[in-house]
Amino acid sequence: xxxxxxxxxxxTFYSYGLFLSLGFIIGAWIFYIQARQKKLDSExxxxxxxxxxxxxxxxSRILHILINFxxxxxxxxxxxxxxxxxxSLYGGLLFGVTTGLFFLRKDKKNLxxxxxxxxxxxxxxxxxxxxxxxxxxxxxGKPTTSFLGxxxxxxxxxxxLSGFSKVHPTQVYEAIGxxxxxxxxxxxxxxxxxxxxxxxxxxxxxxxxxxxFIVEYFRYHFELPVIQSSNFYLNITFxxxxxxGIIITSLLIYFFKTKNNGQxxxx
Length: 267
Description:
Helix content is about 60%, strand content about 5%. It has about 270 residues and is mainly alpha-helical. It has one domain. A hairpin with a 2-residue loop joins strand 1 (about 5-10) and strand 2 (about 10-15). Helix 7 runs antiparallel to helix 8. The chain is globular.
């Protein structure tokens, strides 16, 4: 755990902010490459990214605060301390995608191709960002005796809340899971020629949601699950409900598109 990577005089470089920025930069670069490959208007990308990044940062923070409202209502000053961590991926995704689609509303015939290009940048960006979460000590997992467990430094939130034991490195689980999802997506794109617009996005967002759904079982939560049960696997969090909603919606859209067009993945 290294929340502060470097200090240069009055300047402090936080690992969370650094890797979040790195994730945005590399994700944007991959998005740009994909957009060029799909022959989209690359001149729109700089302005598009400014709007998407701004909306994503705002949305991710807002939903994180709402999900953990019981904590923030008792710690109002923590609301603005975004450099200490605390962001909801799906809040950022909702605000970012909505803003991006609004920006591209005049390019309706290529909207699905824009989404296909964006999903590659999204998976790579959040995979890198999760390393920042690990170094910052946020988004940690539940206590475990597994060999995979890690012990955070004394006085850290993870160390205290875990009862001074090892915890699942859920940040690393996610980072690896999203990297695998990105690899699968690249393999599909390479193997299937003339893949139908929108399919890569549906597959990518479903893979991302599947990874997050699984990791949620091992992640430490400040709030009780929305659905509670004596069965470990039936304790469902708010985030898992969102994940299920995305996966089911993606599957329905996929089958609806293929049924109407009488074909599968390729055009």
